[in-house]
């Protein structure tokens, strides 16, 4: 039996995208079948469309790393879910389609105060940012974190979660509108990287100490400045290489003297056990804040999935602030419950007082957990490991 799905006719530009037919997935015994109401774009979708980022083995070849929808069937080995439940989830692929199958343990109960469009914007960027900030980056309350591409989906999630634990987020972005938005969202310092070097600003803002953590999807273009503005014992989490993958000369001196740690990470290729653990910790720690409106998915645009080409074009041109969402079902995008009276996104307050201090302890403990892949030391040996590095695109590695 077939369903409708976005098809990439052949690797290439946005004109290759259209809605066509594809076999409807069948759930395994530990999976849910979900009718997709909304999905959201990620940079990886663009690379996959261009043929530069094949999906991991076993994943649906369709585009789409996340969705929100309604459970239509429950496998016999799934507990805690029933037909009709509203869920959102991270996917290894396949979200741009009418139906997806999701391991029951990966399903996130949709906050009742959010619409399908809002919930679809949560999984990929919030889980990526959570993992980068707390599991890999070991961010703690009182520390300073520099988040590059601050107005991206990942950046806007990261700003809010850094504030949640009492850390100080600083960002770079490429336009006045993006800087302004990030400041309103909770960034304490916002720098336009097109106006010149950011490292000097960061050192000035930190009394020459530098930042404790950098979340970096840019790579080569920022390497030298990143190293310059990292504090003693600083950590750098490399998420992509939008600004290039090769650095001509690397001086190891600052890495050595400042005791820096540098770690790359791609979420999509991680083992399922890791993603389940990440999802479940996120549900326990962050979902209540989403339910209560203390943090929010930042939505740039909601479009019909028939306009998928236009949506890709918008992301490709770096026009979005936050997430671009595709709606598959136009009707019924209301949340189940009213959001409690809350400030508009531009007026969020992140002053969580004593609660923040408690959260800080929780997050400190969580970040020490020894989950699969956690705690790996960065390789700063200087040896060229490129042969071991199984990534489809050495020039522009993305999530
Ligand atoms: N490794 C992982 O597990 C993982 C998971 C998810 C996402 N990611 C990566 O994280 C990044 C953010 O993802 P997203 O979906 O949130 O992206 P997004 O919303 O599309 O935002 C990306 C932004 O990055 C900025 N940018 C693009 N090229 C740049 C360059 N050469 N130099 C400086 N800034 C540049 C642009 O903003 P400006 O206007 O500010 O330049 C652009 O709008 C992507 O690179 C994505 O591949 C990695």
Summarize the structure.
This protein has 399 residues and is an alpha/beta fold. Helix content is 27%, strand content 22%. NADP nicotinamide-adenine-dinucleotide phosphate (NAP) is lined by residues 42-44, 124-125, 128, 149, 151-154, 173-175, 178, 193, 217-218, 221, 239-240, 242-243, 265-267, 315, 318, 320, 398-399.
Provide structural commentary:
With 399 residues, the protein is of the alpha/beta class. The protein has two domains: 2-122 and 297-327, Alpha-Beta Complex (Quinone Oxidoreductase, Chain A, domain 1); 126-268 and 366-388, Rossmann fold (3-Layer(aba) Sandwich), CATH 3.40.50. The chain has helices at residues 43-49, 116-120, 123-136, 153-164, 176-185, 199-205, 223-228, 253-257, 272-285, 287-291, 308-316, 353-366, and strands at 2-8, 17-23, 31-40, 66-74, 86-90, 99-103, 108-109, 144-147, 168-173, 189-192, 211-216, 230-238, 261-264, 299-304, 323-327. Strands 3, 4, 5, 6, 7, 14 and 15 form a seven-stranded mixed beta sheet that branches. A hairpin with an 8-residue loop joins strand 1 (2-8) and strand 2 (17-23). The model is unreliable at 343-399 (pLDDT under 50). The protein binds NADP nicotinamide-adenine-dinucleotide phosphate. NADP nicotinamide-adenine-dinucleotide phosphate (NAP) binds at residues 42-44, 124-125, 128, 149, 151-154, 173-175, 178, 193, 217-218, 221, 239-240, 242-243, 265-267, 315, 318, 320, 398-399.
């Amino acid at each position: 039996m077939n369903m409708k799905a976005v098809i990439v006719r052949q690797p290439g530009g946005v004109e290759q995208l259209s809605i066509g037919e594809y076999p409807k997935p069948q759930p395994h015994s530990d999976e849910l079948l979900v009718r997709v109401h909304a999905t959201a774009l990620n940079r990886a979708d663009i690379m996959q469309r261009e043929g530069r980022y094949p999906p991991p083995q076993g994943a649906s070849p369709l585009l789409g790393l996340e969705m929100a929808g309604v459970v239509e069937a429950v496998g016999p080995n799934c507990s805690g879910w029933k037909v009709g439940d509203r869920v959102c989830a991270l996917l290894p692929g396949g979200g741009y389609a009418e139906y997806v199958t999701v391991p029951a343990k990966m399903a996130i109960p949709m906050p009742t105060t959010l619409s399908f469009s809002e919930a679809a914007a949560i999984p990929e960027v919030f889980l990526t940012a959570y993992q980068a900030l707390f599991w890999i980056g070991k961010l703690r309350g009182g520390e300073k974190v520099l988040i590059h591409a601050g107005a991206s989906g990942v950046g806007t999630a990261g700003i809010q979660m850094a504030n949640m634990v009492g850390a100080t987020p600083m960002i770079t972005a490429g336009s006045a509108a993006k800087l302004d938005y990030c400041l309103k969202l909770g960034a304490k310092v916002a720098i336009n990287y097109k106006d010149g070097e950011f490292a000097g600003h960061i050192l000035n803002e930190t009394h020459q100490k530098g930042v404790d953590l950098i979340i970096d999807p840019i790579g080569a273009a920022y390497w030298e400045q990143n190293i310059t503005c990292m504090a003693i014992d600083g950590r750098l989490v490399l998420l992509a290489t939008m600004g290039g993958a090769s650095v001509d000369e690397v001086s190891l001196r600052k890495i050595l003297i400042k005791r820096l740690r540098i770690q790359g990470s791609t979420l999509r290729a991680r083992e399922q056990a890791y993603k389940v653990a990440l999802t479940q910790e996120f549900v326990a720690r962050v979902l209540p804040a989403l339910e209560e409106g203390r943090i929010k998915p930042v939505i740039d645009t909601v479009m019909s999935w028939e306009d998928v080409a236009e949506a890709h074009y918008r992301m490709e041109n770096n026009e979005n602030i936050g997430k671009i969402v595709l709606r598959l079902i136009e009707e019924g995008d209301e949340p189940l419950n009213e959001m409690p009276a809350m400030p508009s996104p531009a007026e969020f307050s992140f002053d969580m007082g004593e609660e923040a201090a408690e959260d800080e302890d929780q997050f400190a403990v969580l970040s020490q957990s020894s989950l699969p892949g956690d705690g790996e030391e960065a390789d700063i040996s200087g040896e060229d490991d490129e042969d071991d590095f199984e990534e489809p695109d050495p020039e522009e590695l993305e999530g």
